[in-house]
From TrEMBL:
Keyword S-adenosyl-L-methionine: no
Species annotation: Mesobacillus boroniphilus JCM 21738
Coiled coil: none
Protein name, as recorded: 5'-3' exonuclease
A single MF term (Gene Ontology): DNA binding
Amino acid sequence: MSKKLVLIDGNSIAYRAFFALPLLNNEKGIHTNAVYGFTMMLMKILEDEKPTHILVAFDAGKTTFRHKTFSEYKGGRQKTPPELSEQFPFIRELLTAYGIQQYELENYEADDIIGTLSLLAEKEGFETKVISGDKDLTQLSSDKTTVNITRKGITDIEEYTPEHIKEKYGLTAEQIIDMKGLMGDASDNIPGVPGVGEKTAIKLLKEYGTLENLLNSIDQVSGNKLKEKLEEFKDQAMMSKELATITREAPVGLELSELEYEGAENERLVKMFKELGFNSLLDKLGAVAEAENAELEDIEFKQLDKIEQDIFAKDNGFYVEVLEDNYHYADIIGFGVVNETAASTCLLKSRWNQKNSRNGPRMKQVKRLSMMRNVPRFHCVITASI
C-alpha cells in the first residue's frame, strides 16, 4: 500500500479561515468562525487526500532563529485579533478529537517543521501534500511533494508542482528563494533589493540562474540604475534569501511512523460540534440518526390558516429556516416569529427544484418577508442576502 503524508500549516490555515468567514459565535458567546472554517477544510482534506499519515504544524512563538540574522524579521505585523486567539485552543482540541498529530518546535516556524518532515518523507518513499496559505512553501515542491496554496476563502486551492511553477514563473522550485532574495516579501518584512519586483527578479533569474551568479555578474546587467541597486544591496539580497529559505534539518523529535492516521473519535467530535453550535456538520458524522432516535418532547401547537396580527408583540425575534449550509444562497423554506407571547412558524411552498437566481423564487421569498413591516413595531433580521 502506498503511503501518503499530509502536512498542514496550522497557523496559516487558521488565519485564512478566520478572515474568510464572518465572525460567528455559539450560544455561550465564544467566537467560532476560524474553528468552523478550519474544520470544513480539514474534512475536505481527509476526504480528498485520504492520507495514511498526517500532521498539523504550528508556530511555537514570535521569535525564531531567523531573528538572529535580522531582528526586524516579520516586524510590523499586526497583532493577532483576540477573536482569533481565543479559538486556537478549540482548533487544537479539534485535532485531538480527529486523532491528528500536532507539533510545534521552539525557535522554529511551522514551515521548518513541514520542510524537515517532507524531506524525510521523500527519502522514505512517501507521496506528500503540503497545505498552506503561504507561498514560501512552494520552494518544497518536487516530484514527490505537492504544495497546495489557498487563494481565496478556504476552498479555492492552487496546486504547486514543479511543472506548475515552471509554467507560472518560468523558474524551478529551487529558484523561489532566489526570487525572494531579490524582490523581498513584505508580509514577512524581508527587504530584498529596493525597486526590484517580481517581473524583474524572474527576468534576472532566467538569465543568471541563481542570486549568487547574478551578484557575481553585476557588471553584465543592463541598466545603470539596476546595477547600482544590486551593488548597493547585494548583502541585503543574500540575507533576504537566507531568511526566505526553509530549513529542512530542524531538530524535529518525531518519526513518520508516529504520524499514522487511524481515524477520528466520532463521539468526541459530536460532543464538540454540539458545544460549538456546528449543527450543519453533525450530519457528516452520522449524528442525524442519533438525533432521530432520541425521545422528543411533546409540544402543544395551534395551526393557523393565515398570519394574524395578534401573533406579534412589541418586540419580536425573526428566524428564517433553510436546509443548506450556505444561508446566503439557500432557498428559504419557512420562517418563525418568537416573542414573549408565543412562538409561531410558517412553512413556505417548496421551491427546491427551481433554479436559484437573483430574480428567481428565492429573491421573491426574501422580498416577501422583508416587506412585512406593517405590523406594530416589527423588528426582524433577515439571514439571507437580498
